[in-house]
Amino acid sequence: MQFLCKEYQDGNPRVRGLVTDTRIHLVPSLNPDGYELAHEAGSELGNWALGHWTEEGFDLFENFPDLASALWAAEERRLVPHQFPNHHIPIPEHYLSEDAAVAAETRAVMAWMDKNPFVLGANLQGGEKMVSFPFDTARPSPPTPAAAPRPLDYEDEHPELQETPDHAVFRWLAISYASAHLTMSETFRGGCHAQDVTDAMGIVQGAKWHPRAGSMNDFSYLHTNCLELSIYLGCDKFPHESELQQEWENNKESLLTFMEQVHRGIKGVVTDQQGEPIANATIVVGGINHNVRTASGGDYWRILNPGEYRVSARAEGYNPGVKTCHVLYDIGATQCNFVLSRSNWKRIREIMAMNGNRPIRRVVP
């Protein structure tokens, strides 16, 4: 925060461009209860678990609805996307009840996500040194047919990795942080608790490293437009004051580079023929089975890797619009606007409903 403000006032062109063209939200601490416990113990007496849970005993990072399992169950029943969406999956009603086992911090963050059309996010943690990206949930293997023999090493649970439709984009975002970090990609130094799980790159898919359901990253991806990653800054979760300056130098370039990635891909506005914005229009990118929605002003952002994409905009009561959008290697999203014309299908459905949804026959005199 101090760096952005000072460099902006001093006229740093990079920071000025970032602050001017980007809406930046910063949350100093998601778990103030845990931070207070860790602060009291300090670096010598603390451990990775100290301060991990809230005072009520919640692990906030795993306290979100498990939307990934709901999506996969719908896919197996072939309900996606016609009856079950592949994006903006609603929060289950039982999760929103007052007596649900949900932390106050989790409820606040979910409301915050719904209020703001976030595009890119990162949660900073400790205990390891790497970048983790969705899915964090491991998909259960399909059941073995009763007549099929089981292998000798068979276990009841065989979770398998399930990549997100934006797997390539997530890898790019993770690499953009890890490669700019001064030590994160130096995996020859070894991990904090075990061998290197990042294939010497400093990045890993969460389900490959530490499978868990209900993570903030999975929830953000499946319920909002936001691509969220976890950045683990080091093995010591509460470093000494004398070490903080070096920690800042290790991460400074990574933080700037990561935030700049929000301007990679396509962006635009969806309007009707009178120029009025269309909210909640769906933006579909060919070849990527995960859509985003326009915000209240009809605007949208879609992070994509360089390439050529067939993009369509769809909204209830309008004919879809389709165009080809090119994403370049340079930072700066490609403008792709859509103007949709009104459709007659809404009126046709009303007429068919009045006729009992039976085909309407044209009587020839």
From TrEMBL:
An example molecular function term from Gene Ontology annotations: RNA polymerase II transcription regulatory region sequence-specific DNA binding
Keywords: Glycoprotein
Keyword check for Glycoprotein: yes
Pfam family, one: CarboxypepD_reg
Domain of life: Eukaryota
Any single GO CC term annotated in Swiss-Prot or TrEMBL for this entry: extracellular space
Biological process terms in GO annotation: peptide metabolic process; protein processing
SUPFAM superfamilies for the chain: Carboxypeptidase regulatory domain-like, Zn-dependent exopeptidases
Location of region: Disordered: 137-158
Domain Peptidase M14 stretches: 1-262
Family assignment from sequence similarity: Belongs to the peptidase M14 family.
PANTHER family the record matches: ADIPOCYTE ENHANCER-BINDING PROTEIN 1, PROTEASE M14 CARBOXYPEPTIDASE
Official protein name in the record: AEBP1 protein
Organism, as annotated: Promerops cafer (Cape sugarbird)
Lineage: Eukaryota, Metazoa, Chordata, Craniata, Vertebrata
